[in-house]
Amino acid sequence: MPSPLQPPTSRSKGSHQRPDLKAAHHRPSWPIISSIEQKKESHGNEDYISMIHDYRSKIESDLSNICNGILKLLDTRLILSSSTSDSKVFYLKNKCDCHRFLVEFKTGTLTA
Question: Which of 24, 31, 99, 101 has its C-alpha lying 20 to 30 A from 74's C-alpha?
Answer without folding.
Answer: 31
